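Memo to structure team: turn this sequence into structure tokens by end of day. - J.P.
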Amino acid sequence: MRFGSILKKNQRLKALNEDDPEYQYVKKLFDEGWKHPNKSTPTVRSIFKLLKTPSEMGEHHSYRSSIVAEVGDGVDTSGLFFHGTNRACALGDRKINDELCNNNKCNLCGIIRSSYDLAKSGSKHKFSRFGRGIYTSACSSKADDYFRDLATCKLQSRALLVNAVVYGKPQELSKTDTSANPCGSGYHSVMGVTGGDLNYEETVVYTNEAIRPVYLVTYGTHSERVGKLRKRA
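Reply from structure team:
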């Protein structure tokens, strides 16, 4: 059966069963990545696998192969990292909510539909600690800081994307450098490490091919913190 024939219009999600090894692995990443002491670990409600065609993953796989060839086998060059963004619909709030919306304010559906676009970097937040890049983190509670619920209806959950990220050889930085861009300097990404300006790590890539969303995690709500995000995240 062809890929397109098994999906409803705009459906790009497949709910995973709790006994599925993929579900258990992603849930473990989420739970272990929840590190903020002032935010209790929420309950995972659902984990969805994002349905992708080979052509949608082709450039990402080619990029990963080129990085492995450059860096060498046996060196970690990729991983799964979280990203929080705006959701303006009920996608993933219940298992039946598996169709993408067409709301221009819904970054979540836009990313799932077309992946990340470096050209849009900085459109949501004025402050970019390590320059114009695509920001992710292994710390799920940090990514949660960037989730925003813009839906007009009351939802039962929050949502984070889990992304396949090719970071290659990362440049480790602990101090803010808004001009950072490792392209051409022997590095492929920036890894923001703790001990300087960051309390929790983050990984930044500077090319669209380095990242693809692969899972969506929805989890229990908690009280939104009042006020704007502090720059020290």
